[in-house]
Amino acid sequence: MEYHIEHHIFPKVPCHNLKKLHKHLKNQFPMPYNGLVDAYKTIIPTIFKQAKDDSYFINIDLPSS
């Protein structure tokens, strides 16, 4: 799904303008995972860790502004 993040951050932006919005915001987002399996390698262990420690979180590096 292209521009999925943009759609959720700015739900009132018409779909035909999401590409333009993406160009303005893309350097502010974390790098995406390389597919679903790559994402699950982070997400699934995190779920188990959070079940034991509700203060646990994933520290995602964001690009500097």
TrEMBL record:
Residues 1-33 form the Fatty acid desaturase domain. GO terms for biological process: lipid metabolic process. InterPro entries: FA_desaturase_dom (IPR005804). This is Fatty acid desaturase domain-containing protein. It comes from marine metagenome. The lineage of its organism: unclassified sequences, metagenomes, ecological metagenomes.
